[in-house]
Amino acid sequence: MSTATHKLLKGATGDWEMVIGMEIHAQVTSNSKLFSGASTTFGGEPNSHVSLVDAAMPGMLPVINEECVRQAVRTGLGLNAKINLRSVFDRKNYFYPDSPQGYQISQYKSPVVGEGEVLVELDGGRSVTVGIERLHLEQDAGKLLHDQSSSLSFVDLNRCGVALMEIVSKPDIRDAEQAKAYVTKLRSILRYLGTCDGDMEKGSLRADVNVSVRKPDGPLGTRCEIKNMNSINFIGQAIEYEARRQIEILEDGGEIDQETRLYDPNKGETRSMRSKEEAHDYRYFPDPDLLPLEFSQQFVDELKAKLPELPDQKKTRFVADFGLSAYDASVLVAERESAVFYETVLDKLASRARDGKVAANWVINELFGRLNKEGRDITGSPVNAEQLAAIIDLIGEGTISGKIAKDLFEIVWQEGGDPRALVESRGMKQVTDLSAIEKVVDDIIAANPDKAAQVKDKPQSLGWFVGQVMKASGGKANPQSVNDLLKSKLGI
Amino acid sequence: MTDLTSLTLAEARKGLAAKTFTSLELTDAHLNAIEAARVLNAFVMETPDQARAMAREADVKIGKGDAGPLAGIPLGIKDLFATKGVRTTACSKILGNFVPTYESTVTSQLWRDGAVMLGKLNNDEFAMGSSNETSCFGPVANPWRRDGSNTTLVPGGSSGGSASAVAALLCMGATATDTGGSIRQPAAFTATVGIKPTYGRCSRWGVVAFASSLDQAGPIARSVRDSAMLLRSMAGHDPKDTTSVDIPVPDYEAAIGKSVKGMKIGIPKEYRLDGMPAEIEKLWSEGAAWLKAAGAELVEVSLPHTKYALPAYYIVAPAEASSNLARYDGVRYGLREQGKNVIELYENTRAEGFGAEVRRRVMIGTYVLSAGYYDAYYLRAQKVRTLIKKDFEDCFAKGVSAILTPATPSAAFGVGEKGGADPVEMYLNDIFTVTVNMAGLPGIAVPAGKDAQGLPLGLQLIGRPFDEETLFSLGEVIEQAAGRFTPARWW
Q1: Which of the residues of B are catalytic?
Q2: Burial class (CB within 10 angstroms; exposed 0-12, middle 13-18, buried 19+) of B420
Q3: What distance in Å separates the CA atoms of residue A437 and residue A479, rounded to the nearest whole number?
Q4: Is there a contact between A289 and B342 if contact means CB atoms under 8 Å apart?
Q5: Angle at Cα A227 formed by Cα A225 and Cα A231, nearest 5°?
Q6: Residues B453, B108 contacting (CB under 8 angstroms)
Q7: Cβ contacts of B290 within 8 Å, gap of 6 or more
């Protein structure tokens, strides 16, 4: 499937190839939990968002939250995946205090979403398609607090029962860069769809990564699963470390134990959590409290019709409609907020056909550049889309030069205000009135007779005159008009 | 006033409406009867204050003329139903003194309709048993004794407290639950009427779960009419239980006395077990004759997979139970036995909190769901279940309105008599009833006669899905023919 050449790792016995698959747990954006009416709000007092169902009181029964089903289907559609009109909830049985029922309600044999695929862009215009194996809905667990007492552990059930989508990829990923790009792209799609906020710091998006190594195109090796990572950079580091660890073992004549490992970002290494022998027998069986989840094709079609434009489609449109480079278009669509900002600028422009590309340059170079410098993100930009559109309009209509526009941008960034009014009040308007410029031109020619004589032999020194006129006009003279005027006055 | 307790629910309703007596008088009569019958151990929690408060409220409503269909009727509640503010234990030590902050849907509907709660009734621990001997509160005595004997007999189970209390005139009716026969078998052992409605007819919300795909609530009462009145209030769709079915609840009482003329009644040949006592055989024939005399047509039918029902049931039910009971872990409520770490806390709590039969079923259930055994046991049992269901569908497709069978293979037995060495001996009690749960059908047990030792015996009628009405019509025919039976008071 891959069209990209991927990174191989060098070992003592030659090159090794990584084979990587991922399980992403994405918290579904919904007001209430998957099977109870309790709130999903993050950060409440411990155990303040817990219903009788979440606490697994005797006789309580789960009721499916239809909004979570819609979100899962929308996500499936966004991943170009098969939507299963009938799926089944199963119980995954295990004892742990973060799971009051003693089982997690999940989907085992019949997930709500089947096979799909994600196009992942890499540096240098390369790309790779990663297959999606399945997506299923399941309950999140609560949180254990071990630092509240020296002898007891406490449990906070606020997160318990919140809906998760587990998105399982095929083992199509071949190196750490692809893995990071895959998570980035998946996160972007989820955020465009509004089905997961993608906030990895809060744990809204977590990844389990399966890593194995093999000789290029050789038989698959034994894999290890690195659990519960919530940073894209750590995912990359963990994969690199884990692959090298496995290669070292194999080259020493050892064997890889299939096991679950944890990544320690402080030490930069993975360590064993439990072996295959210690793996739980989850005793999955269909949850008898819930009927199979069934919906019609019409339900799916209606959701599909209302799906927002996703990054791939948006990128194609930006390239086609505004002549953006593929790279610029990718930069703009990578984050939903950036794309929204750019499109708001487009909406406010007097002529998007004329200035669409200029606007892209301004958003990417001036705005993103400035935001990066100050460590801010687009949602906290001091210059809003309307202001930026006004600046671009002013350039496009010839009211200000590109150079003045940068000064104007700086003023708006610092002080705010309506760019058009600022141009007026601060006299930043470009002067295109020939009679006004003519006087300046005449004065400068008269003051520099030697240079005026030289320029006839060396037309390239005309630039000096242009600079002088622009300087004298405070940058407001229209450079083209100055050029034309100088040429005719100097007779070249 | 003690004879107020011998009224049927229908008679009491008339008396209350006519102001012959008040609900408070009726309630007090029952509270006195309960106090005098503590030796039966039917109630595990008496709630006299609450009962009187509810009775007074009912009297006010009756006075104003806006009484609900069960206004002022004192009932007993199986301890499997969560009752707000009243200890609910499922008769398991593991729930300790658990007091729910919520009311089960079924009981809340009874209170909505004006019924009065007398207290909580004994049952087998987590409804696992057929004799009420597994309760952490000890066994319940059957008000019936063999002629000339002082031997204490079991009332059946798991709704033993419900059946015993209704038979002994301690309450006018009781809630019960039935997973494999837990309403019908105790009803048959105590000469009471018990109906397990179609799966999905009553909400399971707030009922302590045993086996979710089989559990169903229903009433135990002293007459077919009384059971119809109670079921009407208990039944109905509940959005909090997605397995409850959203179809209207008919006026079941209207089915009482309706002609059964021309109805085809199936007699399943597979229920004629080898070594079945002659008196059961005789009772069955008598029942068939009564229905025939009322105009029904009897046909022999075949339910070929019947013999696999009990083994399949003892895979499916423990499997679900092993998972349903995982929540009793000592972490959030109920009993907690400390340990050095959380695993020990689980082990100590569950070892101490669960009785032997519950532990046995949790282990069986865990085993049959384990990797490598799932396909051979659980999956196969589910396939058998599908076949059992199909047996009944085929039978109903031929125009059969209901199926008549014995309710139990024997009359009540003595406390400690069965299952000591071999649990299967106890499990065989449900041989005629489990098929109905496996197929999700309604089944009613109606008293039909007595054995040679003077103990009551019952017949079972199995109906089409959601056709409880036909069972009430047919049950009434049997009740009219067989009469009603009351135990001689010895307590």
Answers
A1: 158, 182
A2: exposed
A3: 10
A4: no
A5: 120
A6: no
A7: B477, B478, B481, B482
CA distance A93 to A235: 29
Q: What is the pTM assigned to this prediction?
A: 0.91
CB pairs under 8 A between A and B: 97
In contact, A250 and A22? CB cutoff 8 Å: no
CB count within 10 Å of CB A398 equals 13
Of B90, B204, B242, nearest to A290 by CB-CB distance is B242
Contact (CB, 8 A) for A202 and A161? no
| A-proximal residues of B, 452-481, CB under 8 Å | none
Residue spans of alpha helices (H) in A135-280: 176-193, 232-251
From B240, B326, B333, residue closest to A61, measured CB to CB: B240
Count CB-CB contacts under 10 A for residue A447.
10
Q: What is the pLDDT of residues B432-471, one digit of tens each?
A: 999 999 999 999 999 999 999 999 999 999 999 999 999 9
> A58–B366: do the CB atoms touch at under 8 Å?
no
Residues of chain A that touch chain B, judged by Cβ-Cβ distance less than 8 Å: 52, 55-64, 91, 93, 95-97, 100-103, 153, 155, 281, 283-285, 288-291
Residue B385: both structure tokens together: 């279940």
Angle at the Cα of B96 from the Cα atoms of B91 and B98, rounded to 5 degrees: 95
Count of H-run helices and E-run strands, chain B: 15, 11
Rounded Cα distance, A312 and A320, in Å = 13
Per the CB < 8 A criterion, the answer to whether B95 and B142 are in contact is no
Nearest Cα of chain B lies from the Cα of A98 at a distance, in angstroms, of: 10
Residue A302 sits at the vertex; the CA angle it makes with A299 and A341, to the nearest 5 degrees, is: 135
Interface pTM, i.e. ipTM: 0.96
**Closest listed residue to residue B226, CA positions, set B198, B203, B193:** B193
Phi, psi at A299, each rounded to 5°: -55, -45
pLDDT classification of A4: cutoffs 50, 70, 90: low
Q: How many CB atoms lie within 10 A of CB A382?
A: 15
Residue B168 exposed, middle or buried by CB count within 10 Å (0-12, 13-18, 19+) = buried
- Enter the tokens of residue B455: 């103990």
In SS3 terms, A200-218 reads as CCCCCEEEEEEEEEECCCC
B297-301 and B264-268: which strand pairing?
parallel
Residue A388 gets which letter from DSSP?
Answer: H
Cβ of residue B488 closer than 8 Å to a chain A Cβ: no
What is d(CA B296, CA B224) in angstroms, rounded to the nearest whole number? 19
| pLDDT digits 0-9 by tens, A381-418 | 999 999 999 999 999 988 888 888 999 999 999 999 99
Q: Which tokens is A157 given?
A: 């059930």
Backbone phi and psi for residue A486, each to the nearest 5 degrees, phi listed first: -60, -45
Best mutation target, A285, A291, A293, to test chain B (most B CBs within 10 A): A285
State the alpha helices, DSSP H only, in A197-310.
232-251, 297-305
In chain A, which residue's Cα lies nearest the Cα of B330? A97
Quick one: DSSP state of residue A362?
Answer: I
Sign, CA torsion B179/B182/B188/B194: negative
Please, are residues B197 and B176 in contact by the beta-carbon 8 Å criterion? no
The one-letter amino acid code at A117 reads: E
Token readout for B344 is: 């020990």
Q: Which residues contact B422 (CB under 8 A, 6 or more apart)?
A: none
Enumerate residues 6+ apart whose C-beta is below 8 A from A75.
A26, A113, A135, A165, A167, A189, A190, A193, A195, A196
Element (H, E) at B31: helix B23-36
The contacts of residue A318 (CB under 8 Å, 6+ apart) are A324, A328, A329, A332, A333, A360
pLDDT in tens, A432-463: 677 778 888 888 888 888 888 888 788 777 88
> Token digits for A241?
């470390």
